[in-house]
Amino acid sequence: MKSYRKELWFNIPSRRGFVNITGDIEKCLKESGIKEGLLLCNAMHITASVFINDDEAGLHKDFEKWLEKLAPEKPYSQYMHNGFEDNADAHLKRTIMGREVVVAVTDGKLDLGPWEQIFYGEFDGMRNKRVLLKIIGE
Question: pTM for the whole thing?
Answer without folding.
Answer: 0.96
